[in-house]
Design brief:
The structure is a single chain. The chain has about 140 residues and is of the alpha+beta class. It has one domain: Immunoglobulins (Immunoglobulin-like), CATH 2.60.40. It has one helix and nine strands; from the N terminus they run αβββββββββ. The strands form two sheets. Strands 4, 5, 6, 8 and 9 form a five-stranded antiparallel β-sheet that branches. It has a four-stranded antiparallel β-sheet with strand order 1-2-3-7, with no helix packed on it. Strand 1 and strand 2 form a beta hairpin. The longest helix has 21 residues.
């Protein structure tokens, strides 16, 4: 009887340790990215609830061509409406690493899909755009 209790205690303690270690592992759980020949970007995000996500937007210029890179968050709600959030720009020249910005997005209509749009720009004129999407827990 004493052995069974001790083994159960060790297992329970081990499980508690695993939960403690795993729960604070990362601020962001998911990622969606899109890469163009001259620009790269991604969104790291975590679902807070069905109407809000916490995000980190990253963008980087990958070509010494005089153009700049942009990235922005895209969300789609339950009604199928897509929200195009504000652009983040890398105006610091090529190969300088990623420009990152942490923020959040919320939509009373719910957020069902999360995407990123990345572009190479000359001023305000897009030269090359790509988009990539990740289905949320509602669309799975």
């Amino acid at each position: 009887m004493g052995k069974k209790v001790r083994v159960a205690g060790v297992i329970a303690a081990s499980l508690g340790l695993v939960v403690t270690i795993a729960s604070p592992a990362s601020a962001y759980e998911l990622q969606v990215r899109c890469d163009n020949p001259a620009s790269r970007g991604y969104i790291d995000y975590t679902w807070v609830n069905s109407t809000r996500i916490n995000v980190s937007i990253a963008v980087s210029d990958y070509a010494e061509d005089g153009h700049h890179a942009r990235a922005r968050l895209l969300t789609e709600n339950r009604a199928g409406q897509i929200v195009y959030w504000a652009w983040r720009k890398d105006l610091n020249g090529a190969f300088n690493g990623y420009i990152k910005d942490a923020t959040y997005a919320s939509d009373a209509g719910g957020i069902v899909d999360v995407g990123v749009q990345v572009g190479t720009y000359e001023g305000d004129e897009p030269l090359d755009l790509c988009s990539s999407w990740d289905s949320g827990p509602i669309n799975g």
